[in-house]
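Re: the 579-residue chain
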Amino acid sequence: MTTDTTTTTAAVPTPADTGSRTTGLRRLTALGGIATIAATFMSWTYTDEFPGDLTVYGYPGGLQVLTLVAGALVLLYALASLDIRGLRWLAPTGTTKALQFLAVGAFATTWFTVIAIAVELGGVVNLEPGGYVAAAASAIPLVAFLLPDDTRKASRPKELPSWAEILIIVAAFATGLFVVTYGIDTEYAELFTGYMITAGFAVGALAKSGIMARLSALTTKYRSIAVAAAFVSAAAFPFTQSTDQYTLIAVNILIFATVALGLNIVVGLAGLLDLGYVAFLGVGAYTAALVSGTTASAFDVHFPFWAAVLTGAAVSLIFGVVIGAPTLRLRGDYLAIVTLGFGEIFRITVGNLDGVSGPQITNGPNGVPNIPDLVFFGYDFGESHTILGIELGGYANYYLLMLLAMILVVLVFSRAGSSRIGRAWVAIREDETAATAMGINGFRVKLIAFALGATLAGLAGTVQAHVQSTVVPEMYVFAGPVPPNSAFLLAAVILGGMGTISGPLIGATLLYMIPAKLQFLQDYQLLGFGLALILLMRFRPEGLIANRRAQLEYHETGQLDTPEGTLPDSGVGTVKAGA
């Protein structure tokens, strides 16, 4: 008697089956993007009490527009993952990670809106069917997390005519201007929060797809054109505003960013932890206020604009040398404690120079009010002027002036960082003992960095005094609800990326806009700083924008973000050999 035995073997997926499954998931992701877009044309709530009026069918408004943009990006990259002709350039290094970022961004923006409606209006009963459809549709693209990782080394892009590459640079900066303008012009906290979610995940997706690296290569190739495009884009901002309401925010961002860039010389290049840097901003502001001709000044003088700027910068330089000479022989925590003390001494001193506790110079805690507007060759910065048929308000004038000041600071930073003294700063930052042994005068080099940083802060302070029209001691504290202060400035440098140019500019922009738009966070700013820095140390220790050295120090060679095997040169300094 014979017994037949049969062996059952598990079916092994073939490459064809795997490819078919992957294609199906990509199509489902694209379908989710379409459904998300369609849901924005429906009503999400029946009442217009929620900001943005999400009650209209066929016309997205408020946060629906952000969900629409997020869904469109998901659809675009899903089609690129399907090798649709004409869209492959969107993902030089692969689409999976970019799709995952965009899917989470669309989901987070949509669900934030739905939850905000339910919380602010008193329950989910306030949602219209469109809200439920949007919530479900935005979850579909999350299937992108089931896709296999298709990250690859970017191939050399196809050579384009010079005019086409220049056009790409211009389009990139124009898009950047639109995105930044939209964020500054947001009218309520919910819209700004949704904007931050959408923009954050979109930027992450573009970085993972390799688009950022290619754009960086183009701007490096056409550096002069890229610089001109950046300047024109920034200068065009006030021409997009109909009132001065948001232009004032932009002016304060430029002041904050300029001072942060000056601090970056001290902290980012020279490696000196300065916790009282805002005092130099105050020195420049008080100096400009006292020579501005205001009736509250103890000195009966009225310097012209150029003289007031030079005086403020010169006095800040003197303070930088006087404070730096006896303290820069200290290192590390001891230097930080001394600079923190200097910042507090400055604030207390100007508060006591009121004619009672000390000489009558700064009007004590009342400060110096009624600072007149700047006048330069008959051009009054406080009055409206018509340029190219567009009327610009007073804050627009100060915006353009501060933009020129920032260009000067960027030029000084880049030139100094690439010079012999800049290389000495980097050497001191990395190992002061070794640098001294190689013949570098550490004290002199650090004093130059301290004095230069103080001068740049004083320069910004002279403009700040006239923009605010008053200066008081409470504006120059270590940490407070209103930037800039020393904690804000240091956080901006670390968050953006030490030793780079664009890093502190981005960090300052974020740290000023978020408290300005989300007023309820003002009491929790230090808590927010702590959480942000913890997350940064865990996931991006080199900062949002990193130079070559930071990338090499914090990451293994195979883990660098740059897909083409090159490191982004967004700052100054040289690469440490053997890192």
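DSSP finds 20 helices and four strands in the chain.
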